[in-house]
Amino acid sequence: MLTSAGEVCTHFYLVRKGILRGYVKDGIKDITTWITGEGEFVSAIASFQLQQASSENVQAIEDCELTGLHYNDLQYLYENFPEANVIGRKILENYYRDAEERAFIARLTEATSKYKHFIATKSHLLNRVPLKFIASYLGMTLETLSRIRSKLSQAKA
């Protein structure tokens, strides 16, 4: 666990190796809110920026190599190096694009469309992420995802 709900996230990370996911608890159910891998940045972003308790959990689902930056160090960079603000803005723009992508998937009504969109945008994660996390991320049951995958593989044959 990189960050647990209720803790303050004090670091922002670059994923050099591995895959992580964000998730929230809904009763006894875990709901995957994002999945990311190499070359991406990861944090419990609201907790990190506001320095407040996180509502989400950040979990490594593979062994990971991360490069981290502490909140105080980032603030120092922003205050003393104007170019750091440009870099910070670009990172937040990526976060915004990713959030928009998740919102798009949530608005799709057909489970097959959601999975096809996942394949089109995150195919590099397909064989590395457990199906239960992909199903949760797409807002469907594991059984539904299994039926869709079976139907799509039969259509290819």
Key terms for this structure?
157 residues, alpha+beta, Jelly Rolls, 3-stranded antiparallel sheet, 6 helices, 49% helix, elongated
CATH homologous superfamily title of the domain at 1-81: Jelly Rolls
Overall strand count? 6
CATH fold title of the domain at 1-81: Jelly Rolls
Helix content: 40-55%
Cα gyration radius (Å): 17 Å
Low-confidence stretches: none
Q: In what order do the strands lie side by side in the largest sheet?
A: 4-1-6
Number of helices: 6
Give me the strand/helix succession: EEEEHEEHHHHH
Q: Explain this structure to me?
A:
The chain has helices at residues 45-50, 71-80, 82-107, 111-122, 131-138, 142-156; strands spanning 11-17, 20-26, 29-36, 41-42, 57-60, 65-70. By secondary structure, it is an alpha+beta fold. The strands form two sheets. A three-stranded antiparallel β-sheet has the order 4-1-6. A three-stranded antiparallel β-sheet has the order 3-2-5.
Summarize the structure.
By secondary structure, the protein is of the alpha+beta class. The protein contains 6 helices and 6 strands.
Secondary structure blueprint with pairings:
Elements: E1 11-17, E2 20-26, E3 29-36, E4 41-42, H1 45-50, E5 57-60, E6 65-70, H2 71-80, H3 82-107, H4 111-122, H5 131-138, H6 142-156
